[in-house]
Write a structure and sequence with these properties.
The structure is a single chain. It is built from six helices and nine strands; from the N terminus they run E-H-E-H-E-H-E-H-E-H-E-E-E-H-E. The longest helix is centred in the middle third of the chain and has 28 residues. The strands form two sheets. The chain has a seven-stranded parallel β-sheet with strand order 3-2-1-4-5-6-9, with helices on both faces. It has a two-stranded parallel sheet with strand order 7-8. It starts with 8 loop residues before the first strand and ends in a 14-residue tail after the last strand. It is globular. Helix 4 links the parallel strand 4 and strand 5. It has a single domain, classed as NAD(P)-binding Rossmann-like Domain (Rossmann fold). By secondary structure, it is of the alpha/beta class.
Length: about 250
């Protein structure tokens, strides 16, 4: 086990499975401690048991201010601080304009955008107290480019970019950084059963969750100490290299 995150305490939302669970595993593997937040209590407790003494599970509905405050308290009380927040929880829904409902729109913004804002707001005091600290907001390639039928998802993920930049500007003088990560198509429970043929990247495969987690670890660590307010793509070249594939 390496120790790139030795002395770091992280809170990861949506961490019971998928990319969030991968982030939690990598944080512990790199010497950090992690609070696993999720609404899936059974899976979250199993993961905490798997990771051992350096992990704790807490029920976390990201739309609840009280749940966020409790999660931060668990980090501080159990591990003595909090200096990494990974806003990973998110949902996806689809629909063309003629049938995409206001309920769908409100639901996805509440989780994907308001949930991240509430996490940052609840964590702010601890992140400042235990700085140097890092906020890693998980967005998407849908936060860089538009896609038909993904109105709420794209809007929420674009908004995460803006939120990240305002937070980075506000907290830079307090030794707290904020960056956004923009995965392309990643193999997770969320993408199971989806037709991904239209999302093929120049690398010619979909990504693995650990490939995103390695970047999360870098941004959580002091190695990225001069990086804030920036976007980091993990998309196999989907956004910037489209049309540039050459067969040998």
């Amino acid at each position: 086990m390496s120790a790139r995150l030795e002395g770091k305490v992280a809170l990861v939302s949506g961490a019971a499975q998928g990319m969030g669970a991968s982030h939690a595993r990598e944080i512990v593997r790199e010497g950090g401690k992690v609070v696993i937040g999720d609404i899936n209590d059974a899976q979250g407790k199993l993961l905490a048991d798997e990771l051992g003494e350096n992990a704790r599970y807490v029920h976390l509905d990201v739309t609840s201010e009280e749940d966020w405050e409790s999660a931060v308290a668990v980090a501080v009380d159990t591990f003595g601080g909090l200096n990494v927040l990974v806003n990973n929880a998110g949902i996806v829904n689809f629909g063309y304009l003629e049938n995409y409902s206001l309920e769908q729109w409100n639901a996805i913004l509440q989780v994907n955008l308001t949930g991240q804002f509430l996490g940052i707001k609840a964590s702010r005091a601890a992140l400042v107290e235990y700085a140097p600290s890092s906020i890693v907001n998980i967005s998407s390639t849908a936060g860089i480019t538009g896609s038909a039928g993904q109105h709420g998802y794209a809007a929420s993920k674009f908004a995460v970019r803006g939120l990240t930049k305002t937070v980075a500007a506000e907290l830079a003088g307090k030794n707290v950084r904020a960056n956004s990560v923009h995965p392309g198509t990643i193999k997770t429970p969320m993408t199971e059963g989806m037709d991904l043929s239209s999302l093929a990247a120049p690398i010619r495969r979909i990504g693995e969750d650990v490939e995103v987690s390695k970047l999360v670890v870098y941004l959580a660590s002091d190695e990225s100490g001069y990086s804030t307010g920036s976007e980091y793509l993990v998309d196999g070249g989907l956004v910037n290299c489209a049309g540039a594939v050459v067969d040998e």
